Amino acid sequence: MTDNAFEKSSITLLGLGAMGAAFARTWLAAGHPLTVWNRTPARAEPLVAEGAKLAGTAAEAVAASDLVAVCLLDDASVGEALADADLTGKDLVNLTTGTPAQGRARAEWAEGRGARFLDGGIMAVPPMIGVPDSGAYVFYSGSRALFDARQGELAVPAGTVYVGEDPGYAALHDVALLSAMTGMFSGVAHAFALVRGEKDVSPKEFAPLLVGWLTAMAPYVYGVADHLESGDYTRGVTSNLAMMVQANGTLLRTAEDQGVGTELLTPFMGLMERRLADGHGDEGVTGVIDLLAR
Ligand code: FVH
Prior knowledge:
Elements: E1 11-14, H1 18-29, E2 34-37, H2 45-49, E3 53-54, H3 58-64, E4 67-70, H4 75-82, E5 91-94, H5 100-112, E6 116-123, E7 137-142, H6 144-149, H7 151-154, E8 159-162, H8 169-195, H9 203-217, H10 220-230, H11 241-257, H12 266-277, H13 287-292
Parallel strand pairs: 1-2, 1-4, 2-3, 4-5, 5-6, 7-8
Antiparallel strand pairs: 6-7
Helix pairs in contact: 11-12
Bound molecules: ligand FVH.
Ligand FVH is lined by residues 15-20, 38-40, 43, 71-74, 77, 80-81, 96-97, 122, 125-126.
């Protein structure tokens, strides 16, 4: 959005940690007047040298622009930083990682103070920000009107994916993807643990094999989605649960033979066994999702 045909809109950013500073640089480089605030002011020095204006307090920074982005450590720090700020008429975009419940509560809090609110979940690490084709994007949820009005500014640092009016949805999507990544890293750790003691298996030669296998298996995600939407957990299954539970024994014995702990594998295997015991041997692993519901 531009204030007129020639000027870029001004933006305020609270928080100049690794991620906040990366966002700040892209807005400055795109020509947006940028007011910044950081709890530790010295951290703003490089950005001030690049053209940012440093505010003395968070409230002053908020007063400087209609669009206010916040990228702090956690939800509590957002509450602390904004405690004295006048949010009336502001477009508040919270890029701080939090839970869905925190996103919803923060939206209610901000709207109660007269702001439009958008929560963001950043799917990137700082070096990806502002780099075309890096794959960086941000999930946004909350005020659709804010998102539409501020698309221009929001799209500068990273891609934008709007996931709904529910302000908790950005965090929900963010955390769901991060949780999947956690499971993937857990598998990667176990795989390297199995091979690391072998003098003729180099980690660098093993790595591309692992990447290739994980990449080949990734589309399995679409099959799970089809199971959940159709309600038929057997549709298109090529490797069924009965076979996989049988194979788990081989995985566990190999870990033991290699002197590797099985603690990263056994929770998931236990759920597979429960689903099999419930009579679902002809499914894939989609049924495990049912067992996770609380
Ligand atoms: N860095 C990453 O890879 C991830 C990628 C995905 C998204 N996360 C989230 O982004 C938020 C900010 O992360 P960050 O990398 O910028 O974090 P830090 O470098 O640790 O900077 C933290 C900033 O928060 C300020 N801060 C901390 N506590 C308070 C407080 N009580 N009041 C006001 N500000 C506070 C801190 O200030 P200072 O220590 O410099 O004074 C930094 O500005 C985060 O939610 C990630 O989960 C990043």
